[in-house]
Design brief:
about 20% helix; about 400 residues; Rieske Iron-sulfur Protein; 4-stranded antiparallel β-sheet; alpha+beta
Length: about 400
Amino acid sequence: MKCGLLPPSFEDTILNICQCVSPNDIRQLGINPNHWYVVALSGEVKTQPVGVMLWKQAMLPKGAAQGAIALYRDSKGQIHALEDRCPHRLVKLSHGQVIGDELECAYHGWRFNDRGECAAVPYLADNQKLPSCKIRRYPVKEQDGFIWLFPGNVETRHGASLQTDGASLQTDGASLQPMGVPEWHHLNYIATVSVINCNAHYSYLIENLMDMYHGHLHEDYQAWAEASLEDIDEDAHRIDAHYTAQSYYKIDKIWSISQLFFPALRRLHPEPLDVSYVYPHWVSTLGKDFKIYCLLCPVNETQTKAYLIHFTSLNAFWRLHKLPVWFRRFVKNSLFGAAQKLLDGLVRQDVQMIEEEQQAYLQNPQRRGYELNRALVSVQRLMRSQSHL
């Protein structure tokens, strides 16, 4: 089911749930907008504008798509983000095209600059002035292969100042920048990306990622086994859960990466398994061989999009590091997506469980399951505190 096309009966169900449950219900929490969220891969925004959705950013009439944002590149390739709504007839600007450095509406040809101001109207009479209408622009930054967007109202709500050259924000005296994915360009890491689209609140996804006991679900894919929670570190911005587990993979020889393709080569061995909820995103390491990120783009109470990025480390191959940079880059690019089958399989299994949890909640929001993993208590506490900031 696509976002924005929910049948009225389903919308009524959501409304009724919101009215009968506590506003502190974890499955009804909004997001803290004063963080950077990932809204697209860099390669997804080319010459044409792209419409994306992020948690209820647009204040539109009932039934209209909320959170709609138009991404586009100017003539220099610089990324920009505007509210995806032409103020003339309220249609989506992402249906239009880019003319020079301006975004042109497909309906009547009105154009808007990167500040959200109307820059041209093709049929403007000589005795008419350009409309003074203005749409919202969003701080946006292209970094580490992804497009990061800051939905907080930095100009008025928090008195924060935007540094357009570095796309960093000063909020309450503290610098707030995208979490970043430094391994994306590093020659010692092989990347695989899987896009998550699930019909569920973002809290279900984060809880799934922080609960390593659910490795039982993935036995067929041999991701990890026998997880045991050892310790938890917690502060106002992140939760770090430290597990020990059995890993099927050990990348210590040049042929070791073939373990991703041939199960017979895998051998169980103990490794530390650390998972972190660095609000609003997630990151994990399994020993020294693997690092995984999940970069979130929550859409609404029952829709979540995210990018899962799996990195296989080549740090153990010191001889490879002495080879020419062009060859190392060739190896990195050639092996992109090496773990695709594994990653996509894990995502399919997780999404099925997450969506079943969401459906059970919609059918009876008062019923609660039993939880034994104390890390999830910390996770829910962080979600609540951040959503109220």
